[in-house]
Design a protein that fits this description.
The chain is of the alpha/beta class. It has helices at 61-85, 98-108, 110-115, and strands at 5-6, 11-12, 17-18, 23-24, 29-30, 35-36, 41-42, 46-50, 53-58, 87-89, 92-94. 35% of the residues lie in helices and 26% in strands.
């Protein structure tokens, strides 16, 4: 996604490419793997899919229910991954798994390890 506008509550599937100047309105969906070419407007309530993407159908209430469920699941998975695999370093996240952090802790010692901002 580059130089496009995704309004709050829009949904872009994994692997989709959204090009310059595209507007995806609140409540609109771009399917996984779709290629939305420059300048397109994906309106509220529309599903776009394909390469290049085009309007496929109107979204239903069941679709919106699935979106809400999917978003909650992805957020939960992301939080669990972050808790299990990442440790903080200042304002950035360093991708060290906890076993690597424990080895570093043993090598550096408690004071230096904590001074780096790792726990």
């Amino acid at each position: 996604m580059d130089a496009c506008t995704l309004q709050t509550g829009s949904f872009v599937g994994m692997g989709a490419v959204v090009m310059d100047g595209v507007l995806v309105e609140t409540g609109a969906m771009i399917a996984a793997g779709a290629l939305v070419t420059p300048g397109k407007v994906v309106r509220t309530g529309q599903l776009w899919a394909g390469r290049p993407a085009q309007f496929m159908r109107a979204l239903t209430e069941a679709d919106y229910g699935t979106f809400r469920y999917t978003v909650r699941e992805y957020v939960g998975l992301g939080q669990r991954y972050r808790a299990d695999h990442l440790i903080p370093h200042g304002f950035q996240w360093v991708g060290l798994v906890r076993s690597q952090a424990r080895r570093m802790h043993m090598r550096l010692g408690e004071a230096q390890f904590l001074q780096l901002g790792w726990r």
